[in-house]
Amino acid sequence: MPKFWSYPEGLKVIINENAKNACPHHVGREGKIIELLHSATYDYAVSDETGDITFFKEYELNPVKGG
């Protein structure tokens, strides 16, 4: 079954409160989607403002307004 993503690669995003259980130190950081993942567990690889690359589910991200 093919996987579909709502956000394109390169989109600026903010890591929201839904990520607090797995990655509490990332909540509130801005980042950029660098890869669309073909994984049952995660949807996106995101490089945040510190340079960390972390995997997130779609509901853990919000697009930056105007981004």
Automatic annotation (TrEMBL):
**Gene3D superfamilies found in the cross-reference section:** SH3 Domains
Record organism: Bacillus velezensis
Protein's recorded name: YorP family protein
Q: Which domain of life is it from?
A: Bacteria
Query: By its UniProt entry, which InterPro entries does this protein fall under?
Result: YorP, YorP_sf
